[in-house]
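Ligand: biotin. Inputs:
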Amino acid sequence: MRTRILELLRQHAGHYVSGEEISKQLAVSRTAVWKHIQALKNAGYDIEAHSRLGYSLRQAPDLLLPAEIAARLKTTVFGKEIRYFAEIGSTNNEAKRLAAEGCPEGLIVVAEAQNTGRGRLARGWFSPFGKGIWLSVVLRPSFHPLDAPKCTLMAAVALTKAIHKVTDAPCGIKWPNDILYEGKKLVGILTEMSAEMDAINYVVIGMGINVNIAPDEFPPELRDIATSVAAAAGRPVSRLALLAEVLAELETVYCLAVSQGFDPVLDEWRKLSITLGQQVNVLAPGETFTGIAVNIDNEGALLVDTGQGVRRVLAGDVSI
Ligand code: BTN
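Predicted complex:
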């Protein structure tokens, strides 16, 4: 009901809608309308109430509330079901729990803050309240489990395109899936999967986007390696606008992967990469070496020309 009241108020943005009109259109009593308006105000909506004219929405809170996300969605599947938390341990854990219970593809879990946000390689993920997008999306792809790691490359493509759409932040992808600006990380991606030998039950793509975190708000140990979209864009960035764009780009690139395979996705990755053509240090399991990153192959592995031949790096980390 609150979502529908908000919709009505939004349709009449800049004007008043009378309590009577709302109660007629939504078939509820005027007292019920008043109660819902109070609840919306308590949730942070700035709604002006005028005894004769009715209600007018002045400003929505800067929160990733489901009604606000829904009002901006451009997708057909992703984000149609939203689980919202002011605070949670990890959106990925919750998304995996819901996926194991049988939730539909495209469900998203989003939180204002995570208190045990998880990164790759069992690291933590700094996730302060209201400053980023801490998001997990449930997928149920028909492709082979061996292709699942490419979902991370796919998400990196979608995230970079979304950031480029909403801001002019000059960021790009460092292999395999970090999104960097001036050598510092803006976004991290954690893809997790449950699968049988030859079929995927679900994939959860977890995305941590540092949106409006000021440099001095990062813990000291992250200040040299992390930055935010706002810092890259030189202005605060609307988390809702960026989230809507991320879901739109992710749905587009996912549909492309499902219908045509990953080759066109990998081509997009190559265009957005800041690793290819660079001299890199490779930290592979058990060894390190340097060379020029020349390409990624159709498995997403990095091809590094060491001068003595081309080495294929499937797992590990690179520094540029
Ligand atoms: C990385 O180490 O680069 C990956 C970081 C992934 C963080 C995101 S935030 C939303 C989702 N929930 C988590 O606990 N982790 C991912």
